[in-house]
Write the structure tokens for this entry.
Amino acid sequence: MVKTENIDKAYEAAKQRYAEIGVDTEAVMKQLSKVKLSLHCWQGDDIHGFLFPGQELTGGIGVSGNYPGIARTPDELSGDLHEALSLIPGNHKVQLHAIYAVTDKKKDLDELEPEDFKYWVDWAKQEKIGLDMNGTFFSHPKVVDNFTLASPDKSIRDFWIEHGKRSRAIANYFGEELGQQSVNNFWIPDGFKDNPIDKATPRLRLIDSLDQIIDKKYDEKNTIEAFEGKLFGTGIESYTVGSHEFYQNYAISRGKIWTIDAGHFHPTEDVSDKFSAYFPFGKGLMLHVSRPVRWDSDHVVIFDDALIRITRSLVRDNELSKTNIGLDYFDATINRVAAWIIGARATQKALLQAMLAPIDQLKKDELNFDFTQRLAETEELKSYPFGAVWDKFCEINNVPVGLDWMNNIRQYEKDVQFKRDTKNSVTV
Ligand code: RNT
Ligand code: ZN
């Protein structure tokens, strides 16, 4: 166990060091406690959901690993989410996918209603958290030849349009019931493995489908739609209908939100450079914080350079209030609850480090073309004692400090996760 007196001593010293450069650690901790992360429910059960047991995962996304303790029921998944939330400082949100509906009779994606999510709303009320939404446009027989909303087949499009409309009614219900806006994220897997002849028409079909979905007006206090592009996916390497430019333009022209998934770009692209180019035109941003590794876009988020660049841009350019930060990755080679905690805590640490900087002073140096000062200062800042402030932040938010949260996980595995009968699991 990390000793309280050591946390406090280190924090007092850190507070002084930051005060010397004009940074108020108390104010920064307050600022950090206001940033909500949206935890992605699908990390807990390898994106299976509850609507279609045994359904194969499609859409070019894949989960590898078979660490014991996967959640198989709504109670197991919500219990695991509760465990994760209790080990992450602050108050957060959870993002659901349509396939996580809890229904008494079998229902298809074009039949879902708000009441099919009552289970989650009741749970969210207990947890005092908000819910975000995602339509599920994959892992379903009506994804035909990698096409959904942009399919040339009208009956396929109509099925998915209806699903999109239903997802909006559900997100609106989340907002109404929980008193905070529910972001409804749209990602579709449509595209071609090999070079298409016609790159234009599928995009026009997608616009038409999306326009039909968003036709009905909902109060934005309750819900707003976000649209997520991708460079490519496995199986659609040559052409993605919903590319980044497509959705950025779509979101701007329709007064909606653009989603940037940090794993969806070419590896040398700096995602953090995109926010300030978008915000003068766009209403808001949804982030899927993820970590690309070679061809995979969904490794567990860690405190790496790409993440630090993202949080620095959000903080320095004052974009946090217009940005919804969600997590999106899946790893079944490690404890799935720990995966949530590692990614969430890494994101918060990166935000904290970005906030612990004399930003106004740095901006002045830049305005004065004092690039020497700017570079020297930003380099020194990297080894300032932000870890001591992070520990204090955990302490005052009543979550374990340092690695202590792993004791909770080891206990939770023993008491809960390892007792689950994996023989009955749909992943076997
Ligand atoms: C896929 C997108 C999408 C999914 C989730 C499960 O490439 O990133 O956000 O990961 O909807
Ligand atoms: Zn994503």
Remarks:
- Residues 35-357 form a domain with the TIM Barrel fold (CATH 3.20.20.150).
- The longest strand covers residues 223-228.
